[in-house]
Amino acid sequence: MTIAISAAFDSGAIHLVGIEGDVVRLEIPNDHLSDFYQWFHFRVSGAAGRTLTFRIENCAGSAYPNGWPGYKARVSTDRLDWVMADDTSYADGVLTWTHRFDTQLAWFAYFQPYTLDRHDALVAEAALAPGVTHRELGQSLDGRAIDCLTLGTGPKQVWLYARQHPGEPMAEWWMEGAIEMLTDGDNPVTQALREKATLHLVPNMNPDGSFRGHLRTNAAGVNLNREWHAPSADKSPEVLCVLRAMDESGVDFAMDVHGDEAIPANFLAGFEGIPSWTDALGEKFYDFGRRLAARTPDFQTEKGYVKAAAGQANLSMSTNQLAERFGAVAMTLEMPFKDHDPNPDAVHGWDGERSKALAVSCLETLAEMIDGI
């Protein structure tokens, strides 16, 4: 049989350079109208009974080349269970792994994908849950809905939003875990939180980039997490409609959910350096991180980003903008493409199910703190 490589599906992204014997040479394409690239997702057929070596040859020019050392590609034969390719290696700008094809089909990806079909199913099910209100806040440049689920009756305004960067699907896996917990009417933590807060959840802020197989940008090649100071209808309607809704409700607590290419751990980034920084507000952010780390081995506070100096925060980023604009306890949650090294999984690495479990821990921590936020 002839080996076939395909990425013409939801979130697919790869370019076939050539097949030479048992070696498949590949490159990752750029996001549309952008220089960003790092996300890949493709299917292989016609290789049953063979062992192939895959080489992605343009990794050195990718958005985050420091993310490749120590990284392992993900592989699935049923699109449900995704495991790490243990023999993945990186050298001289080339990511390499091998796979023995005991099945007729196999899929490979940068991380366990989260498709728009799954997104639609998640939103449809949640919208039927008691006490949940669905709103379409606006539409993307390609005309896709920016869905928002609202629940709870309390005065604290909580915003949870994910996937500004579409090639970070762990963020929507996290949102699935959060939505499942918050719609569980038998969960006493959920019941208490919904009485004290009104929660607004935007599971996917960049559906166009998600479908197109982008790493970081929308249909116009724009990084949405650099648009929060001045979003526009022609470049970033996704941010514009969400920020308008936030202006209507106010924001007391906000979490922007992401993935990080290089750091092998879960961590939070805050709003140090905003003009209106106070130690009292900052302490609420730090307290959240300490409590979360005490609650689960899948979170830590030692590794993370360098903090911005006083007055140097980038207000085009959502966490900084919301802390400055509303005085919110705002934060960015980063999850790894590699693994959470303090508590590793040798088979799956960091994956969707663990992302969902971390969401539960985050919400339990929020419920514990909500009175003081």
UniProtKB/TrEMBL annotation:
The active site is at E334 (proton donor/acceptor). PROSITE patterns: PEPTIDASE_M14. Its cofactor is Zn(2+). CDD domains: M14_PaCCP-like. GO terms for molecular function: carboxypeptidase activity. Keywords: Carboxypeptidase, Hydrolase, Protease. Belongs to the peptidase M14 family. Residues 112-370 form the Peptidase M14 domain. This is M14-type cytosolic carboxypeptidase. It comes from the Bacteria.
